[in-house]
């Protein structure tokens, strides 16, 4: 299995990204194809004493899509960018999947243009896996591939999320919930009410509406469906709540000697919190619904996070997820596929 | 100044609510008019040894709008509910403001029906005051009066939020931000892009888009504008992030004797966090844009929270906010009014 890593995207240096690729190749049974400026890749590889060839290869590209480039224009004008060249390698069968910590909008636009949509999927969606306090991660889709969505699109996000939960995470009968501001079926905006009615008709196992405040603690469902604008606000607001508590605790602690001692004794508990809740340092978010495996890593990914994003791609490829999504709702109920 | 308190709404007993009213009347210069079942109010008042008359009076009503009643139907069918009777007292000039911990949807519907909208305000909005780590509270409007909104409505939420910040909180030149999923003006859904363009034209001081993750820590603006669905998701997701950290810390702490000692030493820091961040136990959320002062308290409000909600109403009345909102954008720039 060979995975293309876009080493020119993101806020970090290509060196850190390449280090992540090397870590992943050593840990997992994957080969890496680094797409970017060949001189930069060669120098980074030699600095970690890794020879080119064998598990590691270079795909040259001369342009870079920047984080603040306009997505559609960047994809049209930068044909020799690491982003476009890397995705073309997936389309041509030279690689099995693509990982990039770059400009999310540009990755979505380039993936649509280069790989195209899966059959019967109106729009791709980005799936985020959030750590929870009870059980496995909570999957949320869409967290930002689209700003405006229809109920038809939300229904297909639900199907893709449930397929991921079943085929990649191995959940037997994934339960889907609709992110909403009340539990009754009449609650929410027009989009939520219409989506509720569609999901209630089946074939997925639908729990009904779920509200944002208890999701990480109670984990009432496996997959949460929402439009990309609301999903992105949800993710960032959870992050905001977490960082408000931790900043405030830090402030209170440094003001007071007794508290400082207390914090020392609590060190393990605090690092446990960081570990469990820091979803932004883990993994990558798969873009589902395009004809190829594409994983978006965080712009501030370090080597460990990049290795984890490569593992997300590896698991998706191993599960044959793109195929499974293309067979669509026919694959349900859960024992099908 | 006389404030009506709806003692039949909410999840708590009328006794707790009445206690809150008594606390407020003793602390602030307000008189209380308790609307609800007179026998219940009389018994609650006598249990805290408060005579009827003077600062405390009773407005009898025979019906109750339940938390799960359909808002519009409840308001139409329960003409003698504490909600409708209490709002009529404001409309008729028998009281200066109304506070209820009841069904939010029903309060909005009843306030619209009984008091009507302010001139040039297309829809009322609920304003929430969130505690932050730097400076005064962050105002967010709308957090749930409306499920679907237009840019025109969001623009009027901005005006109402800024007027509140100026005339009730005393900020000289309140800065408004638009809740969005990116900082560039082209980011977000159609509603956000259109609202951005309107706010950029003035007359309010507009900071541009703000993202959810840093709002409580950095507090980049005074007023955050959003549609009610997104605002409600934002509030509940922040709450979810906070409760995830605190639950996880609790779990880690009880598993481990050293950590338990650490937690003991950190007691003050933890209670500081609870105090600063527990917006749901504080105050009440004003419903802005109707022709009268209406404050929605949390359904699980205790006496202290009710007293605080009454104070929110008192400050709004003292500032003449309803008048100020009715004069609208003419009141701006900030030195006007």
Task: Set out the fold topology.
The structure is a homodimer of 337-residue chains.
Chain A lengths: L1 E5 L7 H14 L3 E6 L1 H10 L8 E5 L10 H7 L4 H10 L5 E4 L3 H12 L9 E6 L7 E4 L9 H17 L7 E5 L10 H11 L4 E6 L4 H4 L4 E3 L2 H27 L2 H9 L1 H11 L6 E5 L4 E5 L5 H16 L2 H7 L10
Parallel strand pairs in A: 1-2, 1-4, 2-3, 4-11, 6-9, 7-8, 7-9
Antiparallel strand pairs in A: 5-6, 5-10, 10-11
Helix pairs in contact in A: 1-2, 1-12, 3-5, 4-5, 6-7
Characterization of this structure:
2 copies of one chain form a homodimer. Chain A has 337 residues and is α/β, with parallel strands linked by helices. Helix content of chain A is 46%, strand content 16%. Chain A contains 13 helices and 11 strands. Chain A has helices spanning 14-27, 38-47, 71-77, 82-91, 104-115, 151-167, 190-200, 215-218, 228-254, 257-265, 267-277, 303-318, 321-327; strands spanning 2-6, 31-36, 56-60, 97-100, 125-130, 138-141, 175-179, 205-210, 223-225, 284-288, 293-297. In chain A, strands 3-2-1-4-11-10-5-6-9-7-8 form an 11-stranded mixed beta sheet, with helices on both faces. In chain A, a hairpin with a 4-residue loop joins strand 10 (284-288) and strand 11. In chain A, helix 1 packs across helix 12 (303-318) and helix 3 crosses helix 5. The longest helix of chain A has 27 residues, at 228-254. Chain A is globular. The model of chain A has no long low-confidence stretch (mean pLDDT 90). The interface between A and B is large, with 64 and 64 residues.
């Amino acid at each position: 299995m060979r995975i293309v890593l876009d080493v020119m995207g993101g806020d970090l240096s290509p060196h850190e990204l390449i280090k992540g690729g090397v870590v992943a190749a050593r840990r997992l049974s994957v080969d890496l194809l680094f797409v970017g400026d060949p001189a930069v890749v060669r120098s980074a590889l030699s600095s970690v004493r890794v020879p080119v060839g064998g598990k590691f290869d270079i795909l040259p590209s001369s342009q870079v899509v920047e984080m603040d480039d306009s997505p559609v224009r960047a994809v049209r004008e930068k044909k020799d960018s690491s982003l476009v060249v890397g995705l073309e390698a997936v389309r041509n069968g030279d690689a099995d999947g693509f990982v990039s910590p770059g400009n999310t909008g540009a990755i979505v636009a380039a993936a649509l243009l280069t790989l195209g949509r899966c059959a019967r999927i109106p729009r791709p969606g980005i799936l985020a896996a959030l750590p929870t306090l009870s059980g496995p991660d909570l999957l949320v889709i869409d967290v930002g591939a689209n700003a405006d969505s229809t109920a038809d699109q939300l229904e297909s996000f639900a199907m893709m999320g449930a397929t991921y939960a079943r085929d990649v995470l191995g959940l037997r009968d994934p339960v889907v919930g609709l992110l909403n501001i009340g539990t009754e079926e009449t609650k929410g905006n027009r989009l939520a009410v219409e989506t509720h009615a569609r999901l209630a008709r089946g074939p997925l196992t639908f729990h009904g509406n779920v509200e944002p405040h208890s999701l990480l603690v109670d984990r009432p469902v496996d997959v949460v469906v929402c439009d990309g604008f609301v999903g992105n606000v949800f993710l960032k607001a959870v992050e905001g709540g977490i960082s408000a508590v931790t900043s405030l605790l830090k402030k209170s602690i440094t003001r007071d000697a007794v508290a400082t001692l207390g914090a020392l004794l609590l060190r393990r508990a605090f690092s446990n919190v960081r570990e469990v809740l820091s979803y932004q340092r883990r993994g990558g978010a798969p873009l589902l619904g395009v004809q190829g495996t594409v994983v978006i890593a965080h712009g501030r990914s370090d080597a460990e996070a990049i290795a984890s994003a490569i593992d997300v791609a590896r698991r998706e490829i191993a599960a044959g997820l793109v195929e499974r999504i293309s067979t669509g709702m026919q694959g349900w109920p859960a024992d099908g596929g």
